[in-house]
Amino acid sequence: MKRFSFVSFCAAALVLLLFSGETRTVEAVTCDPSQLSPCLAAITSSKPPSATCCSKLKEQQPCFCGYLKNPTIKQFVDNPDSKRVASTCGVAYPKC
């Protein structure tokens, strides 16, 4: 019985040790297509996207499927130029 208790104690200590490391928090993203305005120049011309554009694309990435479901916004998000900018920034285009 003592051996079982010791093994249980060691297993519990190991679990605590493993899970007490880095804790990740998930921040909620506010979906706001106007946050993508820094990308407008890159989408409407052949200019490369700015660092701000890429940052905003990455920040708004969880919102892309919602944007694609909105007929007003979809035309701006679902076009070859937008896909090119996203690809240049290393942001995967969603498959919704």
From TrEMBL:
Keywords: Lipid-binding, Signal, Transport. Residues 1-28 form the signal peptide. The keyword Signal applies. It holds the Pfam family Tryp_alpha_amyl. One of its GO terms (biological process) is lipid transport. The keyword Cell division does not apply. GO terms for molecular function: lipid binding. Residues 31-96 form the Bifunctional inhibitor/plant lipid transfer protein/seed storage helical domain. Gene3D superfamilies: Plant lipid-transfer and hydrophobic proteins (1.10.110.10). This is Non-specific lipid-transfer protein 2-like. It comes from Durio zibethinus (Durian).
